[in-house]
Design a protein that fits this description.
By secondary structure, the protein is α/β, with parallel strands linked by helices. It has helices at 2-16, 25-32, 58-70, 84-89, 104-107, 149-157, 169-177, 188-195, 222-237, 240-249; strands at residues 34-39, 42-43, 47-49, 55-56, 73-78, 95-97, 111-119, 121-126, 141-145, 162-166, 183-187, 201-204, 211-217. Helices cover 37% and strands 24% of the residues.
Length: 267
């Protein structure tokens, strides 16, 4: 039993991804001269691959801003809702900028920055489907992403729904298009990205969850977390946040949504 406990302790230290010397991730990033960011490749307009094969999106621009501020190169690593926290804990990425809602259960194993985006969960359905709210999903099939808060939220909002899960959002949308699901559910802005002007589908219902996005960072590394928080506040105060938001969510974009969120900025 004693050997087993020792093995658990050793594995736990390895999973934390913290060096034996207790160096901050900030120091590691600067020494490496590269920021390794875990991002989504399947969640427009936050993070996706465009027609030219480039990684683009609101969160990709945020990752680039952080790397530039640090004076280092940027390396992007694809994560999914299911794998992202494990990749951070294992030390494969320095942070997560991946449409991740700050939840208490997640805060038990990693830390979060201040909120940089606020959204809520809705439904994406075919037009004239007669589905308007979660009440209409009883006995129906809804598609979402495995390991996401969306999966748990819809089960709570409508216990009689049948949930079909996928690794990526486009696969969930494909299930809707093929008639294998009656709706797709996740954060409204992600649904906007999936729909992207397709008039055959519509986003319906009121928000049935609150989704404050935060940057995920390793547990108990206040130096790194503080750096990220201060960088976010400077991003907001400089007006660069608002310009980046307009680029992806403004009137000229494919994902129009008015900016009603205001970032918490400390004096």
């Amino acid at each position: 039993m004693r050997n087993f406990i020792s093995l658990v302790v050793v594995l736990g230290l390895m999973l934390l991804g913290v060096s034996a010397l207790g160096a901050s991730r900030l120091d590691m990033v600067k020494k490496r001269q590269a920021l390794i960011a875990g991002v989504k490749f399947d969640a427009p307009p936050f993070g996706f691959v465009d027609r030219r094969g480039r990684n683009v999106g609101f969160e990709i621009d945020l990752a680039r801003y952080l790397a530039k501020r640090l004076g280092v190169k940027l390396k992007l690593v694809q994560v999914t809702s299911k794998t992202r926290i494990l990749l951070l804990i294992n030390g494969h990425v320095d942070l997560l900028i991946a449409t991740m809602t700050h939840k208490r259960e997640r805060d038990r194993v990693i830390d979060f920055s201040i909120t940089y985006f606020l959204d809520g969960q809705k439904l994406l359905v075919k037009k004239n489907s007669r589905i308007k709210t979660t009440r209409d999903l009883a006995g129906r099939v809804v598609a979402t992403v495995q390991g996401s808060t969306s999966e748990r939220n819809i089960a709570k909002a409508q216990p009689k729904v049948r949930i079909l899960t996928f690794q990526e959002y486009p696969m969930a949308f494909l299930a809707l298009r093929q008639g294998k699901a009656d709706a797709v559910t996740t954060d409204s802005t992600i649904l906007l990205g999936l729909k992207k002007g397709d008039r055959n589908y519509e986003i319906v219902g009121d928000f049935f969850s609150s989704e404050p996005y935060g940057i995920g960072v390793p547990e108990n590394d206040s130096k790194w977390r503080d750096y990220i928080n201060f960088a976010l506040m400077d991003w907001w105060d400089s007006g660069q946040y608002q310009r980046t938001y307009a680029k992806w969510f403004g009137p000229a974009s494919d994902y129009r949504m008015d900016l009603t969120f205001e970032m918490e900025v400390w004096p």
